[in-house]
Amino acid sequence: MNKTFVWGHRGAGFTGIQNTIASFQEAIDMGVDGIKTEARLTKDGVVVLCFYNDLEKNGEHLPINQLTLQDIKNYPYEGNETIPTLREFFEIFHEYDIRYNFDITEPDVGIEIIKIAREFGLIDRVEITKPAVYPYPLHTIFAKIRDFDDKVTLINSVFLKHSVINEETIELEAMRELDVQAVNLKFDYANYEIFKMVKKLGFKFYVWDILFRRSMEKFLRMNYNNNRVDAIYSNLPERLLSIRDEIQNS
Amino acid sequence: MSLTCTGCGKKIETLPLECGYSLNVNSETNEMECFMENCGMISLSEFLCANCCTNRNVMKVSKAIEQLSMTNPEYGEELKQFKKNIIQTSFNDSDFNYWIEFGEGQFKCGKGIKNGASIQIKCPQGIMNKILLGETDAISQFLSGKLKIEGDIQYAVVYFDLLMLALEINRENRGELF
Lengths: 250, 178
What we know:
Chain A is α/β, with parallel strands linked by helices. Chain A has nine helices and 13 strands. Chain B contains five helices and ten strands. The longest helix of chain B is centred in the middle third of the chain and has 22 residues, at 50-71.
């Protein structure tokens, strides 16, 4: 049985300054299987890795897509860190045996990610994710990306307002049409019955926002027909890796 | 009959004619008491308006979680995983404020305003009361715009996750903790 894949959320999660080269390096040193981050396009069309929708410039909050790369590089982050570009990220980390997962909120960012990943020969290791706060149907974000690349891995984080998880709320039909590979749920929306449903439908099952030991143990122990939960995102990846070793190595 | 709230001093406008609960005599104090749901047993020398009753419940649950952090090893261990955060909560339909400080193994709370809050939460008091009772979840209230969060949203989510964990531990203890 495959082990559950551990994603370091924004790098090493709550350790250090998130979405920085230092945090990504720390996550890799911890032994994560992949790094999950957020990607956005600047005004001059550069993909940067940043959670924030907007940044403050001269006392004004401006969306990242209205700021140039220069503006963004001048943004004062803690610890003299800067917001990295995707190209910098791949240049530094492309030789590690890890996967990369990017939350996006517009299709054009996904297409730019694919172009750069192809340059680095990393397209097989890239996953593009619709975030759980994105309220629109899967087609609005993934149709253009799927037209551009018929193989890239796409992940569906189910919208957080759906209190019931079923074939309708995971957009089963759209997932099949767009060849979306995984359903990603916030941990308190997920349970064994939903895990079984997703696996029976033939998709991978991801869970996010897992912090507590009891939740980590619960999802790391889940097993349906020799299938484990496929992946977990955590802001405490070192803890998750340690508990995975306890449970899935035994 | 005119009553004023013991909590805020305002006149209580409406009185339930038939609440369905019976009055009891507290054998220790020899005073009449009435069961007021979230507020528990209330002495008849003390009357609370709905606002003060909700505020009292919010503090009662928060204080119970503070107690849980000191007595439940699992909960205390989880609180060690996070850096210290201060959350200031205010209600947009009441002048009641309270703060929560969590992280580094501790969970503390208090009425009023605390300096140094990195997260501000604003919502109607009834919404926070429902969250604390496990009757609604904070994320869906946030997405519907009824609950506003300013500051570090990630740690606000951790706070709500910690609330859910406390409720879960309390349920496992058949509601005996709070």
